[in-house]
Structures are given as C-alpha cells and as structure tokens.
C-alpha cells in the first residue's frame, strides 16, 4: 500500500476507530518494524494540542491476538515503573487488517553508561516483580510462534514441557527431523531437573524475547524495552536470547549482578534457555537453524553426568 493511501486510513484508524480523538494526519512514513508486520511512523495534529507521533503496525486480520498480547505485555512491564516501554494505546481491526498503535519513542545515541543503566534497570524489573507464580494469564507469542503459558507448580516442569517440549512438537509436526536430534532434545526434556539444578527457584516478570533488536536507547540515554513475549519465569531465562543475538558488554552484567545477583552456574544453565530460542528459529525460519540446535544440544548433554 502506498504511503499517500495510508493517510486517510490512519486518520480514520487513530482518530475515529481506536483512540477516538479528532486529529489530522500530517505525515506517514514507512519504518523498519521487524520481519512480521508492516510498520509506520505517524505524525498527527490533535485539535488544540501539539503534534504527536505514533508507532503503528499493520498485519493480517488473524494477527489481532498477537497485537493484543503485545499490548498486555507492554502494560505489565509499564506497571513495574522501573524501565520504560512505548506506551500501548490501542489494537483493533479496521479495513480488514489488524492494527497496533503505540507511542513513538525518539531514539538517541547510547551514552557511555547506557549498558550499566540497562543492567541496573533489568535487574530491578526482575527484583521488584519476584514471586513464585509461573506462566501467564494467557498464551502469547514468541515472534509468530504461539507460546504456551499455562500455570504450573514447578519451573523445571514448565520449561521442560511448555518451552523445549512444545518447540520440539511444533518442529516434528511441520518438518522431518533427524532421529538422533529428536533423541537429543527428548533427553534434555527428561533430564531438565539435572540441567537446571542450582537455580534460585524464584520467578519474575520476563520481557521474554530480549535481544539487541528489542531494546532501545531514548533521547535521555535510558533503556526502553519493545516487542515483549512476557511471562513469569526464572529470570535466568531472560538471558537465553540475549546470549544468542546481540549479547551485551560486561558492564551490563556487572550492573545486573550489583543490583540482583544471579545464582552460581547461571551461564551454564542459560544454554538450555538459548536452545529454546534456537528451536523457535528452527520452527519459524527453517532447517538452516538445525545445525545450531544440534551443537547446543550436544553442549548441554556433555555436561550431564
């Protein structure tokens, strides 16, 4: 769809359908918004008010639940009041497409202490939401994959069945996998109590899909979390994706440990959390990720007595 064609749609979408405020769309610009949805920066003039800017996503009508889950996740992080997120505004269906409207975040250059600030803020998010609950109030999405979040009593069982086990089931349902690889993953599922021994047993609110593309630096030099796949789980799981794509420098981890230290052995346990994200990439993007999954499985199994 051409940008010029989007302006009247945005006026109808934002002003009438989803936010219910009279406005005039000044500019619509296509921006990068990940590999799943079309994304736009929308500048609008509200009646008697200064111009505002919005981040708007557009996708197929069946994607509405995904957008609603994103709003729920952003709202949960926002309620912690310790780390910034784009303010969630609305999600809905207009013109046979699903739409998501968020506050536009103006990015700025990362100051020298950005990763220190980020480490402190993430640790505080985990610390202030610490408890014993596991899962989430609804299933949601890791990228385009459904993520199961049914409440359970034990974290090890939850991660074995609703994370690694579920990803393996999805992979087996959609493609032919080598039998030795299936055996590897099955062994990891059955040995999860050994693999995750030593974790602190608590849970926290997790961003859930934390990598270099899902955090920003605002104009004040503060970290901002975007595109969450939230649930309540052991906080070590937060680092699985971060270790895979876009790992942070030592200052980030030093600051995190200064605020809320992780239990000894967390980096070894983190390997199985990285495997979860590798399996998800295998399911989303194909067999090109099989070798990485096999290598990680072998690494995890080599540490089992």
If you had to describe this structure to a student in words, what would you say it looks like?
The chain has helices at about 5-20, 65-80, 115-130, 155-175, 180-190, 190-195, 240-245, 250-260, 265-285, 290-300, and strands at about 25-30, 40-45, 50-60, 90-95, 95-105, 140, 145, 205, 215, 225, 230-235. By secondary structure, the chain is α+β, with helices and mostly antiparallel strands. It has two domains: about 5-105, 2-Layer Sandwich (Phosphorylase Kinase, domain 1), CATH 3.30.200; about 115-300, Aminoglycoside phosphotransferase (APH), C-terminal lobe (Aminoglycoside 3'-phosphotransferase, Chain: A, domain 2, Alpha-Beta Complex), CATH 3.90.1200.10. The strands form four sheets. The protein has a five-stranded antiparallel β-sheet, with helices on both faces. A two-stranded antiparallel sheet has the order 6-7. Strands 8-11 form a two-stranded antiparallel ribbon. α4 (about 155-175) packs parallel to α9 (about 265-285). The chain starts with a helix and ends with a helix.
Shape: globular
User: What would you call the structural class?
Assistant: alpha+beta
Name given to the CATH homologous superfamily of the largest domain: Aminoglycoside phosphotransferase (APH), C-terminal lobe
How is the CATH topology of the largest domain named? Aminoglycoside 3'-phosphotransferase, Chain: A, domain 2
Q: Would you state the CATH class of the largest domain?
A: Alpha Beta
Estimated radius of gyration = 20 Å
Number of strands: 11
Helix content: 40-55%
């Amino acid at each position: 769809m051409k940008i010029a064609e989007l302006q009247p749609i945005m006026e109808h979408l934002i002003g009438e359908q989803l936010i219910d405020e009279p406005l005039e769309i000044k500019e619509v610009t296509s921006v990068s918004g990940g590999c799943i949805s079309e994304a736009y920066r929308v500048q609008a003039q509200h009646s008697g008010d200064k111009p505002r800017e919005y981040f708007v996503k557009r996708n197929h009508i069946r994607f509405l639940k995904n957008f609603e889950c994103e709003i729920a996740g952003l709202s949960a992080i926002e309620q912690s009041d310790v780390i910034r997120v784009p303010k969630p505004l609305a999600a809905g269906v207009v013109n046979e497409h699903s739409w998501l409207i968020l506050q536009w975040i103006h990015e700025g250059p990362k100051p020298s202490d950005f990763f220190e600030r980020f480490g402190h803020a993430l640790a505080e998010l985990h610390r202030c939401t610490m408890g014993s609950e596991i899962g989430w109030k609804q299933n949601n999405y890791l990228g385009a994959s459904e993520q199961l979040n049914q409440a359970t009593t034990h974290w090890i069982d939850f991660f074995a069945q609703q994370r690694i086990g579920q990803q393996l089931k999805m992979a087996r349902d959609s493609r032919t996998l080598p039998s030795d690889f299936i055996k590897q993953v099955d062994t990891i599922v059955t040995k999860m109590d050994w693999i995750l021994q030593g974790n602190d047993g608590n849970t926290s609110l997790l961003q859930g899909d934390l990598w270099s593309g899902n955090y920003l630096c605002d104009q004040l030099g503060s970290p901002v979390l975007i595109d969450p796949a939230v649930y309540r789980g052991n906080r070590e799981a937060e680092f699985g994706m971060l270790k895979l794509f876009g790992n942070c420098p030592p200052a980030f981890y030093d600051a995190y440990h200064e605020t809320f230290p992780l239990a000894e052995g967390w980096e070894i346990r983190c390997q199985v959390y990285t495997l979860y994200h590798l399996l998800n990439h295998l399911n989303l993007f194909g067999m090109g990720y099989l070798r990485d999954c096999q290598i990680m499985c072998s690494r995890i199994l080599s540490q089992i007595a």
